[in-house]
Every structure is written in structure tokens, then in C-alpha cells.
Specification:
Elements lengths: L1 H31 L9 H20 L10 H27 L1
Helix pairs in contact: 1-2, 1-3, 2-3
Length: 99
């Protein structure tokens, strides 16, 4: 059973790293949205392509009044922190139970 515990432990760390990388991508995309970036720049296209589907999902499903400020990156960041604190720690506790 220790093999399953090690597998879950490794999975928890991979999920944590992926969530951290996506958190930084969201932060950079939010900062770039404050300026008028070149829409044909490959980096800008990558950032918008990877973040905009989640941002539009948040905008559609949360009734945030239109005040000129987009709170969807903040909501996404809060969701990432929640997943890191809940999901990753739960996976680590499950892994410890199998060891």
C-alpha cells in the first residue's frame, strides 16, 4: 500500500506545482490587461488563450456589477488558493494514511 501512498503524494505535488504556475500566468495576464498590448504578440496570445476561457466562465456565472473593473482574475486566484489549501492538503493526508 505504500506504493499507492507514494503515487498520491507525487500527484499532490504535481497538482500543487501546476496550480502555482497557473496562478502566475493569471497574475501576468491581469497585469498585461492594464496596458494596451499588441494582440498579435505570441506571448499575449498565449496568455489570453490560456486564461480567457476561465475568466469568461467566471464573468458569466458570477453576478458582478459592471463597474469598469474586471474582478474575474481575483476570483480565479482565490479559487486557486482554495484548491491549493484544500485539494493538495487532502491528497497529502490521504497519502500519509496509505504509508
Amino acid at each position: 500500500m505504500f506504493v499507492l501512498g507514494n503515487l498520491i503524494y507525487a500527484l499532490a505535488h504535481v497538482v500543487d506545482i501546476l496550480l502555482s504556475i497557473y496562478m502566475w500566468i493569471v497574475i501576468v495576464a491581469a497585469l498585461i490587461s492594464w496596458v494596451n498590448p499588441d494582440p498579435y504578440n505570441p506571448i499575449v496570445r498565449f496568455l489570453y488563450g490560456i486564461t480567457e476561457p476561465l475568466f469568461s466562465f467566471v464573468r458569466r456565472h458570477l453576478p458582478i456589477p459592471q463597474m469598469g473593473i474586471d474582478f474575474s482574475p481575483l476570483i480565479v486566484l482565490l479559487a486557486i488558493v482554495f484548491l491549493q489549501q484544500f485539494l493538495v492538503k487532502t491528497l497529502l493526508q490521504i497519502a500519509d494514511a496509505f504509508r
